[in-house]
């Protein structure tokens, strides 16, 4: 548990730094290019490479590769593990290289007829050129994604956590040093260099674990096929998720001006605590899940799952309550400046209240699905997820009338909550329990502590209404933190003392 908490902390801190650099990147890009036609071409060109990365080299690959790779490590079969990793690297590299070449060849047609048919001929030509250059990064990211999985399976998280930071720094450098000279070509060069940096920053750690790449291509190997079998449903699930976002965007585009932007901003704010807490914990615990399954340690798996869920709920419940109670103040501090005025804040807060209700559901899904993946079951989460996305669309059509774009956010929350609940029940059956005698009372106490925090925070905001927003924000953060910790301590929540103690212990990450 000490190693797990330390690993989750490393990933979480790196995520915070990466998001901060991402925000800085967007500020610099906006300063350099504003809303110029060439920036539109850059954004459009990024769509296809980003989609390829998400579907192939992103979470789908890790969820399939780590459980299979971990089974070799559990048997101390280092040669088998290296053979599997080398084969997957070679297969993914070749596949993405071929796909990238095909997309590059047909790029003019894709740009004109699919991506941006309404662009001017000059913009379409620029988009085509940028797309072809960006495709280089897709192949590099494929290899880098496997490197991250190898290191995570070895319980090493620092270098994989630093990789996105290297990527963002390269784009920032491209914008600052190349942007004034060669325009958006500088940003595109930053993407390619950043992808290379994303890979190279992990090489020293790979060497530390004595990983040796070999030009093996055993694509008929049963373990390689197992990775492909596990990956297929996950890719399908991600594609469905992307389709759902497209449908919501189409629905929101027919509403009042600013509706789609408000939804985007509210979703982004909701994802901040979800990423910092839930994704960090899920990333850190997934290799442990996989190793325990490989060793047949079902009782240890249940205990680890329960501990991860308790740690997650202890941190995410107050975040949910904070977003609900102080949503307007949070949006004001983060976004309200320039053309983002008080009306924009009001619109975004309207959507955020509905998204925030689903924060816990989105977060626990990260842990639950990782447990299924560790059990070599990617089909069940994808099947339930596909049904949830269909329900999301249906609810969106039903709720958009009475709640406008808020109905789209509420539909997402309802569908995700039902998805998480059903998967939790199914997982409990698969694992013959989830240590409920410990998990349920702890969750109840944490929920009560979060409610106490919410009441204190609401009272503070009412008493300080009209004061300077930065003073209110600082006071609200202090009140929320102190009241939640105090309530948790009084109610006897073990995590209020356990997590700090674990963080202070020395652990090898």
Percent in strands: under 5%
Radius of gyration computed on alpha carbons: 23 Å
What does the oligomeric state look like here? single chain
Q: List segments where confidence is low: pLDDT < 50 over at least 5 consecutive residues.
A: 505-509
Please estimate the helix content: over 70%
What global shape is seen? globular
The overall average pLDDT, rounded, is 85
Span between termini? 12 Å
Alpha-beta content class: mainly alpha
Provide the succession of SSEs.
Answer: HHHHHHHHHHHHHHHHHHHH
Task: Give the number of helices.
Answer: 20
What's the story with the biggest beta sheet? none
- The total beta strand count reads 0
Keywords, separated by commas or semicolons:
509 residues; single chain; mainly alpha; globular; disordered C terminus
Set down the secondary structure blueprint.
Elements: H1 2-33, H2 37-57, H3 59-74, H4 78-105, H5 107-115, H6 121-153, H7 158-182, H8 184-200, H9 203-208, H10 222-252, H11 259-294, H12 298-325, H13 327-335, H14 342-356, H15 359-374, H16 379-403, H17 405-430, H18 436-463, H19 469-491, H20 495-504
Helix pairs in contact: 1-7, 1-11, 2-3, 2-6, 3-4, 3-6, 3-10, 3-11, 4-6, 5-6, 6-8, 7-8, 10-16, 11-12, 11-14, 11-15, 11-17, 12-15, 12-18, 13-14, 13-19, 14-17, 15-17, 16-17, 18-19
């Amino acid at each position: 548990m000490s190693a797990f908490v330390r690993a989750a902390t490393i990933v979480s801190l790196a995520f915070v730094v990466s998001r901060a650099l991402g925000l800085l990147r967007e500020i610099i890009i906006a300063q350099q290019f504003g809303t110029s036609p060439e920036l539109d071409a850059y954004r459009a060109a990024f769509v296809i490479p980003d989609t390829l990365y998400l579907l192939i080299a992103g979470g789908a690959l890790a969820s399939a590769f780590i459980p299979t790779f971990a089974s070799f490590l559990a048997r101390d079969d280092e040669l088998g593990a290296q053979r599997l990793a080398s084969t997957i690297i070679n297969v993914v590299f070749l596949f993405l290289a071929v796909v990238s070449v095909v997309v590059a060849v047909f790029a003019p047609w894709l740009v004109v007829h699919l991506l941006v048919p309404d662009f001017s001929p000059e913009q379409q030509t620029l988009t085509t050129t940028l797309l072809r250059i960006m495709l280089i990064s897709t192949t590099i990211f494929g290899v880098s994604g496997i490197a991250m999985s190898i290191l995570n399976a070895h319980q090493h998280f620092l270098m994989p956590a630093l990789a996105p930071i290297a990527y963002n720094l390269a784009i920032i450098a491209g914008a600052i040093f190349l942007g004034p000279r060669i325009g958006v070509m500088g940003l595109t060069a930053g993407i390619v260099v950043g992808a290379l940096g994303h890979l190279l920053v992990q090489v020293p750690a790979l060497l530390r674990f004595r990983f040796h790449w070999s030009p093996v291509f055993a694509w008929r190997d049963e373990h390689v096929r197992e990775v492909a079998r596990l990956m297929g449903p996950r890719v399908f699930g991600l594609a469905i998720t992307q389709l759902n976002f497209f449908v919501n965007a189409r629905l929101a585009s027919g509403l009042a001006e600013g509706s789609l932007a408000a939804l985007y901003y509210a979703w982004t704010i909701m994802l901040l605590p979800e990423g910092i807490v839930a994704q960090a914990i899920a990333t850190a615990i997934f290799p442990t899940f996989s190793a325990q399954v490989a060793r047949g340690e079902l009782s240890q798996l249940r205990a680890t799952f329960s501990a991860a869920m308790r740690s997650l709920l202890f941190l995410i419940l107050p975040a949910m309550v904070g977003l609900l109670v102080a949503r307007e103040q949070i949006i004001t501090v983060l976004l309200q400046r320039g053309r983002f005025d008080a009306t924009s804040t009001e619109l975004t807060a309207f959507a955020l209240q509905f998204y925030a209700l689903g924060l816990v559901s989105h977060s626990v899904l990260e842990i639950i699905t990782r447990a299924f993946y560790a059990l070599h079951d990617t089909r069940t989460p994808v099947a339930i997820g596909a049904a949830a996305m269909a329900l999301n669309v249906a609810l969106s059509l039903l709720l958009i009338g009475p709640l406008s774009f808020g109905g789209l956010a509420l539909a997402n929350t309802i569908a995700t909550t039902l998805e998480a609940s059903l998967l939790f029940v199914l997982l409990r059956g698969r694992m013959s329990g989830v240590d409920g005698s410990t998990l349920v009372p702890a969750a109840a106490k944490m929920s009560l502590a979060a409610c106490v925090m919410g009441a204190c925070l609401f009272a503070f905001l009412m008493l300080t209404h009209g004061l300077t927003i930065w003073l209110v924000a600082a006071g609200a953060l202090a009140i929320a933190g102190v009241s939640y910790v105090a309530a948790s301590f009084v109610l006897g929540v073990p995590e209020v003392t356990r997590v700090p103690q674990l963080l202070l212990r020395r652990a090898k990450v």
